[in-house]
Amino acid sequence: MLRVVIVRHGQSVANAEGRWQGQLDYELSAEGLRQAELLRGRFTEEKFDPQFVYASPLIRAMGTAEIAMPAKRIITIDDLKEGGAGVFEGRTMDEIRKEYPEVALEFERTRSFNSVPNAESRFDFRKRAQTVVDFFVRGHNKDDEIVAFTHSGLMMFIIAVIMGTNRVWTLRIPNTSVFDFRIDPNTWNIANSLSGSQGVSAQNTGGFEVRRFADSSHLN
Question: What's the predicted TM-score (pTM) here?
Answer without folding.
Answer: 0.91
